[in-house]
Protein: HD domain-containing protein
Amino acid sequence: MSTLTEWAYPLAESLLAEPLPRRWRHCLGVAERARTIALILDQDADLLEAAAVLHDIGYAPDLAKTGFHPLDGARYLRDVADADEQVVNLVAHHSCSWLEADARGLRAELDGEFPRESEPLNDALCYCDMNTTPDGMPTNPVDRINEITGRYGPDSLIGTFIRRAEPEILASTSRVLERVAAKRQPM
Structure:
């Protein structure tokens, strides 16, 4: 039986590796972070890793329709790739994307087409993304937010969105770390 990750890696690679090699390295790093927290996800570990490696496919030139990569990626996964519904929804809502959707006037479309998954799954994907540099290396959410703000500019749509999302990103990360610590406690 094929796993979601066995399906997801080649798909993400085919969309990102050649046109966007740095974005591909980032996605591989996010998937690697997913494996480090698998112990808190039990049967959903494969689901999270698949969503992690696919989370930024909406940047692929052939997929970018609205310019809002979570929506473009999720629509491709749903409409073309016939992906698992939970993977699609995680990609659509990764890393507080609903706040960016607000800024872009796309919140009704995002929420209308893609329901949010459970808080533990959304938190886990946010944790993985915000603890990975653009080159796929480990980092921390504060440095990642600062890097994003610096790359796009503090007054840009992305710079404004990421600062607005910062409290939720930090809260998500804290909840994941609390779950990891609780799981590692001896019974």
